[in-house]
C-alpha cells in the first residue's frame, strides 16, 4: 500500500513540476494559457513515448519482447552463418577495390551438378583460404573461391529447395550483394544428365528454379549481369571421356564452348539461337578428330564412337536451346536476361588417387577467359549498350543545335558596331549585355567574343568627358547643406546619402545596370565626377560604377560612410528621423468626429505603417554603414515608449475637445452603432488598439493597459457565461502565478476581476437600455428625460441617470486612485457615449417643450384675440405663461443666484433660448412656480411678523428704563495746564443736554458741588468747557452713550485732554502753546448709572438688529413687471 502511495505521489509531483515549468516558460514568453497547456501535454506525450521506446529497446535487447516486430530484421542461425561467410569474402573484395585491383566476381549457381567438385579440380591456386581446396566437399551455404585474378562465389544448391527459411536467407544474400560492386556475371551450372533426360518437364522445373533464384539479382542489376551457362558432368555423355582422353594435356586445359560478342536475342521459336555455338564446336571437334588418327589401344567400337562424336554431341542443341529459352526468354513473371557464353566441362578421377578428380576444359576458363570477359565488360560495357549509343548521338545532335543557335544569337549581338555609338547608346548596350548571364549556355561557345565586345563598349563609354571631384570637398558641402536644413529636409538628405552608399556598394559587387536603376537616383551633389548635361542618367550610372570599382571609388565610399555616421549621430534626440512626413497621411480626429477642428491630428509616423517606414529607414542606414549604429539601436529600443507617448498626448487632446457636449439629436443609425460598440468613440478606440497591437504587455503604459482591459471586457461580455468564467479564472491564475514567480507580495485580490466584469456588464446593460429607448422614440417627447433632473412622481427610473454612475463604478474597479492623464482620457471616450445619449434625450425633450409652448401659450393667445382688449390679453398671457411654467416647463427650470435658468445634467444644459430665460427671470419670480406654502415670500412674511413682535416687547422694556432717572453728584476742582503756561484756566463748566432741558455746573476753580439727573435715551449731549481769560474752549460728547462715556473718563477724578480733542477751539490752545489740559471732577457712586446704561443699550442693539432683519425681508421681494405680448418669443428652445 505504501509503495503504491509513494508511486502515485511521485508521479503527481512530476506532473506538477512539469506543469510549473511549462507555465514559467509560457509566462516568460507571453504565451496564451491554451498554448501552455498544449505544450505541457506535448512534453508529457514525448516523455511517455521516449520512455516507452527506451523500455521497449531494453526489452528487445534482453530478448523478452519484440520478437514478431523485429522478426524480419533479426538474423536466424542459418542467416548468421551465411552472413559470416559472406563478410569473409566481401571484406577481401572491398580491400582489393580500395587497392584499385580489378577482381571480377562471379556467382556460381547449380543444383547438385558437381560445381564444387569442378572448382576444386580446376588446378588453380587459391588465396585467402588455408583449407585444402582439392578436397571435394559439398557446399552447405557459401564458399568463396579466390583465384589469382578471379573470384567465384559458390552458392549452395540448398537455395534451390524453395523452403521459406532458405528463401529468406537468399533475400538476405541478394540484399548484401547490392551493397557490393556489380558482379561480373552469374554462372549457371546445368548437369548434362538433365539435358540427356527425355523428360523435358524435369529440365524445365530445374531451369525455372534457377531463374526464380536469379530474378532478384536481375531486377537489381539488369543488363549489367550477364549469364554464363556451364554444362557440367559431361563425362557422363557417351564418348565424351573417350574423346577427351585422346586430347593432349594442353588441350584439356583449354575451355570448350562459345562466347557471344553481343548478347543474342533469345526467342524459343528461333532454331538458330545456338547455331554459332554448335557450329564452332563441330568444326573444332572435326579438326581434332582428323588429328587423332587411329589409336592402337582402341577397339572398333570405341573408334567408331570417336569418329561419330562431333555429330553425336550436336544432338544436345535442341535440348540446350530449350533450356536457354526457359532461362533467358522474358515473360510476365521474369525479366529479360543477357546470355554471354556457354561452356562444357567435366571431371575425371586420378589414377593414383581415386578420391581426387581433375577437371577437363576448366583451367583456362577460370584462369583467363572469365577474367578477360569480366575486365572487358567493365571497360567497354557502357559503350556497347544501345541506349548509350543513342545517348551519344543525341548529345552530339544537341551540341550541334546548341552551337548553331548560339552562333545565331551571338551574331545578332556582335553585329553592333560599338566603336561608333554615342555614350547613351553604349550605356543601353551595356545594360542589354548585362541582362544575359555571363555563363548562359546560349552564349557560352562565343563568350570570349562577347566579352571583348563588352569591354570595348565600356572603354568607349568611360572616355566620355567628365571632371573629377574631390570627395572631401563635395561631401563637406553636402554635410553643411544637411546641417542647415529643416528636420524634414535633413531626413530626406540623410536617406538620400544612405541610398547612394547602398548603390555604390552594389556597384562594387557587380550589380547590373537594370538592378541599379531600381534604386533611388543618386543626387548630383554626391556624384564622383561632374558630367555633361547631355549624358543620360543610365550613362552616368555606368560611368559611376566603373570609377566606384577603382581604389579612388573605395575611398569615396569609405568617406561617404563616415559622413553618414556623423550625420546620423549629430542629433542625439533624432528629431530629423521622427519629423512629420507626407508619405503617410496624419490621423485626423475629424474623421471620427466631424465637429472637431482639423488641427487635431497625429503624425502618420506613429502608426503601424509609419513604424514600418521608420524601421525601413533605420535598416537602410545600418545597411549603408555596414554595421549597427548604437543611436539607432537605442531608438528602436525606446520606440514603443515614444509611440505610446505620442498616442497618449493625442488621446488627451481629443478627449479635451470632447469633454463639452451640447444637446443635439443622434440619428437612428448612430444609435444602433452605439449599441453595437461601434460609435465614433469606440471606433477610435479600436483604431488605437489596432495601431498599438505590437506593444507587448511589459512595454504597455497604464493608459494602454486600461484600454486593453476594457477591450478584453467587451470581448468577454459577448461570450457565453462559461467562457467568461473560464477567462476570469485564467486571468486570476496567470496573475497569481506571475506574482508568485516574481516574489511580489502586493498581489491582486483573487476576486478582483469578477466585480470588474459585473460592473462592465452593468454599464453595457444600462447603455443598451438607454440606446433602446432612444431608438424606439418617435416624435419628440419628454419621456427620455423623465427623472433626469429630479425624481418624477411615479418613481419610474431613467437609464440615463445610471450611465455615469455605472461608468464611475467600472472606473473604480479598474483604475482606483488614478492620477494619470492618459487613463483619464481613456475614460472620457467611454463617457462621451453616455454624454451623447444624455444630450440626445435633452434635445428631444426641449424640442417637445418648444412644441408645448406654441400649443399652450402662443396658439391660445392668437385664438379669438379680437374679442379681448389689451388688458384682457395681458391678463390671459400672464395666466397662460404661469400655467406653462408650473406645468411642462417646471422640470426644465431651476433656480440659481440670478433667478430661474435652464436645468443641466452632467454639465449639459437644456438649450432654452436667452429670450425665454430673460422672460421668466424678469416677469415671473421663481417662487411663483411653487405652492403658496412653499414660497419664500410666505416664509418671509411669517418671519417679519415674529420679528415685529419681538421689537415691540424690547421697546416696552426700553421705555420703562427711560422713564427712570439716576442722580449723580459732581465735585469740581481747579483745572490746570500740566507743565505750566502763560495762560491758566479760570474755571470749568459741565453741561448735560436732555429732552427736558439743560443742566449746567459752573465752577471758577473752587471746590463746588452740583447734582445731575440722567435718563437713558433722553440725554444725548455732554459738553465740558474750560474758561480762559478772553476765550473758552469746549469738548463735546454726542449720542445716547455721551453721559456714560463722560462718567467712565472721570472715574479717577481727573482727565487729561489733548488740545486736538477740543475741536474747532484747538487752534486757540495751540496759539497759546497749550498742548494738554488737566480737568478735575470728582464723581459720586456711578455703578447704578452704568448698570442702567448697559441694560438700556443692550435692548437698543437688539431692536436695531431686528429692524435690520425686518428691512431685509421687506426688500427681498423684487417688483416684477408684466412683459409685453410682443416680447413673447416664438421658440423657447434651440431645436435644429
Summary tags:
1136 residues, alpha+beta, Rossmann fold, four-stranded antiparallel beta sheet, 12% strand, TssM1_N, Type VI secretion system component TssM1 N-terminal domain-containing protein
Question: Explain this structure to me?
Answer:
The strands form 8 sheets. The protein has a 7-stranded mixed sheet. It has a 4-stranded antiparallel sheet with strand order 21-18-25-24, with helices on one face. The protein is an alpha+beta fold and 1136 residues long. The chain has 8 domains: 9-61, no CATH class; 102-266 and 277-381, 3-Layer(aba) Sandwich (Rossmann fold); 393-463; 468-579, no CATH class; 588-658; 664-740 and 754-843, no CATH class; 848-934, no CATH class; 964-1084, Immunoglobulin-like (Sandwich), CATH 2.60.40. 54% of the residues lie in helices and 12% in strands.
Radius of gyration: 65 Å
Gross morphology: elongated
The computed structural class is alpha+beta
How far from one another are the termini? 87 Å
Q: What is the assembly state of the chains in this entry?
A: single chain
The stretches of 5 or more residues where confidence is low (pLDDT under 50) are 746-752, 791-795
Mean pLDDT across residues: 82
- Going by CATH, the architecture of the largest domain would be 3-Layer(aba) Sandwich
Residue share in β-strands: 5-15%
Q: What's the arrangement of strands in the largest beta sheet?
A: 2-3-1-4-5-7-6
Number of domains: 8
CATH secondary-structure class of the largest domain? Alpha Beta
Count of DSSP H/I helices = 36
Number of beta strands: 25
User: Major β-sheet, in short?
Assistant: 7 strands, mixed
According to CATH, the fold-level topology of the largest domain is Rossmann fold
Helix content: 40-55%
Amino acid at each position: 500500500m505504501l509503495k503504491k502511495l509513494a508511486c502515485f505521489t511521485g508521479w503527481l509531483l512530476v506532473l506538477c513540476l512539469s506543469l510549473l515549468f511549462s507555465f514559467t516558460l509560457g509566462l516568460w514568453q507571453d504565451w496564451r494559457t491554451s498554448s501552455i497547456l498544449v505544450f505541457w501535454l506535448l512534453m508529457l506525450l514525448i516523455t511517455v513515448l521516449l520512455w516507452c521506446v527506451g523500455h521497449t529497446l531494453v526489452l528487445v535487447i534482453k530478448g523478452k519482447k519484440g520478437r514478431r516486430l523485429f522478426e524480419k530484421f533479426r538474423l536466424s542461425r542459418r542467416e548468421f552463418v551465411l552472413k559470416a561467410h559472406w563478410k569473409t569474402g566481401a571484406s577481401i573484395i572491398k580491400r582489393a577495390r580500395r587497392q584499385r585491383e580489378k577482381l571480377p566476381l562471379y556467382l556460381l549457381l547449380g543444383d547438385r551438378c558437381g560445381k564444387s567438385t569442378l572448382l576444386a579440380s580446376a588446378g588453380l591456386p587459391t588465396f585467402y583460404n588455408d583449407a585444402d581446396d582439392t578436397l571435394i566437399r559439398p557446399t552447405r551455404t557459401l564458399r568463396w573461391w579466390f583465384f589469382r585474378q578471379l573470384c567465384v562465389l559458390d552458392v549452395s544448391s540448398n537455395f534451390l529447395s524453395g523452403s521459406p527459411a532458405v528463401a529468406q536467407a537468399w533475400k538476405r544474400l541478394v540484399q548484401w550483394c547490392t551493397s557490393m560492386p556489380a558482379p561480373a556475371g552469374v554462372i549457371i551450372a546445368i548437369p548434362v544428365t538433365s539435358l540427356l533426360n527425355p523428360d523435358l518437364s524435369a529440365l524445365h522445373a530445374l531451369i525455372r528454379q534457377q531463374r526464380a533464384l536469379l530474378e532478384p539479382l536481375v531486377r537489381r542489376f539488369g543488363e549489367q549481369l550477364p549469364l554464363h551457362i556451364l554444362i557440367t558432368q559431361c563425362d557422363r555423355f557417351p564418348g565424351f571421356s573417350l574423346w577427351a582422353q585422346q586430347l593432349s594435356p594442353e588441350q584439356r586445359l583449354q575451355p570448350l564452348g562459345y562466347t557471344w560478342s553481343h548478347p543474342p536475342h533469345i526467342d524459343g521459336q528461333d532454331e538458330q539461337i545456338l547455331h554459332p555455338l554448335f557450329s564452332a564446336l563441330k568444326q573444332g571437334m572435326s579438326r581434332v578428330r582428323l588429328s587423332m588418327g587411329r589409336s592402337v589401344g582402341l577397339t572398333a567400337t570405341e573408334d567408331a564412337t570417336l569418329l561419330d562424336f562431333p555429330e553425336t554431341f550436336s544432338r544436345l542443341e535442341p535440348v540446350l536451346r530449350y533450356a536457354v529459352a526457359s532461362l533467358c526468354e522474358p515473360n510476365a513473371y521474369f525479366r529479360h536476361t543477357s546470355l554471354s557464353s556457354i561452356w562444357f566441362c567435366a571431371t575425371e578421377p586420378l589414377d593414383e588417387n581415386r578420391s581426387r578428380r581433375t577437371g577437363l576444359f576448366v583451367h583456362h576458363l577460370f584462369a583467363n577467359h572469365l577474367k578477360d570477359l569480366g575486365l572487358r565488360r567493365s571497360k567497354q560495357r557502357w559503350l556497347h549498350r544501345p541506349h548509350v549509343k543513342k545517348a551519344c548521338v543525341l548529345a552530339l545532335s544537341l551540341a550541334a543545335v546548341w552551337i548553331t543557335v548560339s552562333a545565331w544569337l551571338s551574331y545578332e549581338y556582335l553585329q553592333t558596331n560599338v566603336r561608333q555609338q554615342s555614350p547613351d547608346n553604349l550605356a543601353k548596350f551595356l545594360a542589354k549585355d548585362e541582362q544575359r548571364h555571363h555563363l548562359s549556355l546560349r552564349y557560352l561557345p562565343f563568350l570570349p567574343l562577347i566579352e571583348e565586345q563588352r569591354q570595348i563598349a565600356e572603354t568607349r563609354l568611360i572616355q566620355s568627358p567628365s571632371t573629377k571631384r574631390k570627395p572631401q570637398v563635395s561631401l563637406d558641402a553636402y554635410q553643411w547643406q544637411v546641417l542647415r536644413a529643416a528636420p524634414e529636409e535633413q531626413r530626406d538628405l540623410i536617406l538620400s546619402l544612405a541610398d547612394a552608399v547602398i548603390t555604390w556598394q552594389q556597384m562594387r559587387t557587380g550589380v547590373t545596370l537594370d538592378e541599379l536603376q531600381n534604386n533611388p537616383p543618386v543626387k548630383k551633389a554626391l556624384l564622383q565626377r561632374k558630367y555633361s548635361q547631355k549624358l543620360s542618367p543610365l550613362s552616368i550610372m555606368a560611368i559611376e560604377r566603373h570609377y566606384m570599382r577603382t581604389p579612388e571609388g573605395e575611398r569615396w565610399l569609405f568617406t561617404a560612410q563616415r559622413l553618414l555616421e556623423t550625420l546620423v549621430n549629430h542629433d542625439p534626440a533624432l528629431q530629423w528621423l521622427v519629423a512629420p512626413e507626407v508619405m503617410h497621411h496624419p490621423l485626423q480626429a475629424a474623421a471620427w468626429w466631424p465637429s472637431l477642428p482639423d488641427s487635431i491630428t497625429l503624425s502618420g509616423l506613429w502608426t503601424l505603417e509609419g513604424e514600418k517606414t521608420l524601421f525601413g529607414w533605420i535598416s537602410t542606414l545600418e545597411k549603408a554603414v555596414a554595421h549597427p549604429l548604437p543611436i539607432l539601436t537605442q531608438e528602436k529600443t525606446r520606440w514603443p515608449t515614444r509611440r505610446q507617448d505620442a498616442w497618449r498626448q493625442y488621446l488627451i487632446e481629443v478627449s479635451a475637445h470632447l469633454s463639452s457636449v451640447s444637446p443635439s439629436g443622434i440619428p437612428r443609425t448612430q444609435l444602433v452603432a452605439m449599441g453595437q460598440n461601434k460609435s465614433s468613440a469606440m471606433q477610435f478606440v479600436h483604431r488605437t488598439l489596432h495601431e498599438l497591437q505590437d506593444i507587448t504587455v511589459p512595454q504597455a503604459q497604464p493608459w494602454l493597459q486600461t484600454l486593453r482591459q476594457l477591450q478584453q471586457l467587451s470581448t468577454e461580455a459577448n461570450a457565453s457565461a462559461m467562457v467568461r468564467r473560464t477567462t476570469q479564472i485564467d486571468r486570476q491564475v496567470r496573475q497569481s502565478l506571475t506574482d508568485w514567480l516574481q516574489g511580489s507580495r502586493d498581489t491582486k485580490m483573487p476576486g478582483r476581476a469578477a466585480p470588474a466584469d459585473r460592473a462592465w456588464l452593468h454599464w453595457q446593460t444600462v447603455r443598451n437600455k438607454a440606446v433602446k429607448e432612444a431608438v424606439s422614440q418617435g416624435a419628440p417627447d419628454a419621456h427620455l428625460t423623465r427623472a433626469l433632473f429630479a425624481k418624477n412622481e411615479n418613481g419610474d427610473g431613467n437609464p440615463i441617470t445610471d450611465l455615469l454612475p455605472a461608468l464611475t463604478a467600472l472606473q473604480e474597479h479598474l483604475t482606483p486612485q488614478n492620477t494619470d492623464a492618459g487613463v483619464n482620457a481613456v475614460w472620457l471616450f467611454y463617457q462621451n457615449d453616455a454624454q451623447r445619449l444624455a444630450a440626445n434625450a435633452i434635445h428631444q425633450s426641449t424640442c417637445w417643450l418648444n412644441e408645448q409652448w406654441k400649443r399652450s401659450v402662443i396658439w391660445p393667445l392668437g385664438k379669438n384675440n379680437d374679442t379681448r382688449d389689451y388688458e384682457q390679453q395681458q391678463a390671459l398671457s400672464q395666466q397662460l405663461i404661469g400655467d406653462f411654467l408650473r406645468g411642462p416647463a417646471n422640470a426644465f427650470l431651476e433656480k440659481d443666484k440670478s433667478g430661474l435658468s435652464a436645468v443641466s445634467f452632467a454639465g449639459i444644459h437644456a438649450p432654452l433660448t436667452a429670450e425665454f430665460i430673460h422672460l421668466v427671470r424678469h416677469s415671473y419670480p421663481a417662487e411663483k412656480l411653487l405652492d403658496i406654502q412653499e414660497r419664500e415670500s410666505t416664509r418671509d412674511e411669517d418671519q417679519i411678523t415674529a420679528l415685529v413682535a419681538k421689537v415691540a416687547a424690547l421697546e416696552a422694556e426700553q421705555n420703562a428704563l427711560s422713564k427712570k432717572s439716576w442722580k449723580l453728584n459732581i465735585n469740581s476742582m481747579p483745572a490746570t495746564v500740566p507743565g505750566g503756561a502763560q495762560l491758566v484756566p479760570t474755571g470749568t463748566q459741565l453741561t448735560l443736554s436732555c429732552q427736558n432741558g439743560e443742566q449746567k455746573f459752573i465752577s471758577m476753580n473752587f471746590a463746588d458741588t452740583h447734582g445731575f439727573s440722567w435718563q437713558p435715551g433722553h440725554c444725548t449731549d455732554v459738553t465740558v468747557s474750560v474758561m480762559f481769560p478772553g476765550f473758552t474752549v469746549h469738548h463735546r460728547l454726542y449720542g445716547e452713550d455721551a453721559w456714560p462715556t463722560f462718567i467712565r473718563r472721570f472715574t479717577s477724578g481727573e482727565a487729561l485732554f489733548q488740545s486736538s480733542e477740543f475741536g474747532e477751539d484747538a487752534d486757540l490752545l495751540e496759539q497759546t502753546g497749550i498742548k494738554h489740559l488737566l480737568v478735575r471732577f470728582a464723581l459720586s457712586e456711578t455703578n447704578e448709572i452704568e448698570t442702567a446704561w448697559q441694560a438700556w443699550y443692550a435692548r437698543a442693539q437688539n431692536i436695531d438688529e431686528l429692524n435690520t432683519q425686518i428691512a431685509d425681508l421687506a426688500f427681498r421681494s423684487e417688483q416684477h413687471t408684466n412683459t409685453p405680448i410682443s416680447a413673447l418669443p416664438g421658440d423657447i428652445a434651440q431645436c435644429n
